[in-house]
Amino acid sequence: MASQNKAAPSANRREFLKRSVAGAAAAVSVARGAHAAGDPTIRIGMIGAGSRCAGAAAQALKAGPDVKLAAICDVFDSRLQASRINLEKQFPDQVAVDDEHCFVGFDGYRKVIDASDVVLIACASKFHPMYSEAAIEAGKHVFVEKPHAIDPVGVRRAKAVCDRAAQKGLSIVSGLQSRFHAGWQEAVRRIHDGQIGDVVAIQSMFLRAPYRVYDRDPGLTETEYHFYNWYHFRWLSGDDVPQSLVHNVDRASWILKEEMPKWCFGLAGRSSSFGVQYGDMFDHHTAVYEYESGTRLYALCRTQAGCYNNSSDVILGSKGICHLGHRPRFEGETPWRYEGPDNNPYEAEQKALIDAVRQGKPLNSGYHMIGSTMIGVLGQMACYTGKAIHWDDAYNADLEYGPSPDATSFETEPPTLPDETGNYPLPRPGITGLADL
Predict the structure, then answer these.
(1) What confidence tier does 18 reach under pLDDT thresholds 50, 70, 90?
(2) Residue 333: which domain range?
(3) How far is Cα 216 from Cα 236, in angstroms, rounded to an integer?
């Protein structure tokens, strides 16, 4: 159950923007230097053994032979063992995970933290703030996948974690990898230099077929099935605006120099993805954000099969247009096309994190990951309720998709159950309020 908490501490949008810009100015490239630790080995640990965390581990291991995978945890042993076997095949000299460092269950994250120097967190997104908090408090460096929270309570917790990392001199790096893309770095630099004039509007798209779905296994309890198919349950994933569209709004925030929107309204629902495997998420969203500068962000995401797909952005300027695809290009008064080298931003972000640890120069993504996550959460709230929602009201809302991550396990009763048709109840825009989420 959630409600508006009028007594919540103020988080004025302008103050948030000032803090974000100050953080951005401090987020300089990691300088070269010696590894501060006496032992040159950097032990990484995986919290979560799905494809994304396994991918992050592989990308970190590519950063050098001094990086070793030391521990893995997951709530499903089958996923843990599959990832361990696959990573051992790819990196036989760098994967050193014996049976004693394979942890199954909801307390496994603590054991991975104990065994690691760098903790990679990519699991049901509900737990990202909690696990990041535990790792930073234990003095470990962190990579945390997006979204960094799924509701305002989680966003505020994640922000406190980033602040704590800065206080302790620890790295916390975001899975919002766009800012490590060489072509986009050059395009954004040129936009900031005024090559397409003032940014008037941005059209952002994350349009694709449904994310991986899993049919119900009769051997799983209802709660276990939710975790096995966690992306499709909003109490675990937050739905598709924070999950997918967050990449696009992060690029928009980058382009707009970390300006936060004033308010948002949204249109959303489900029209084609029915059945138990699709959980209780919408299959299409449109979120419209307005900024103090006058810029509008039109952000769209969809998870429907057989439809037009696109995951790029179009930035409309007063002097030209930027098409921010794989090879960004400008149209208008000063045409331009990126002709530089390609890079893998996923590998680049892991390399930056490992270099930060080697050199003892912390890297903190808090200056953009919290704002971008909150923009996604704001859009999802507007889509569910059908209401126009202002930034301050959303950020300070006492909204947490229950139960809290600290009180969740396979023994927890899931907050939603299928009806007689095999479908889970959905929010109803215009009828559902924040207190109903």
Answers:
(1) low
(2) 182-342+374-407
(3) 17
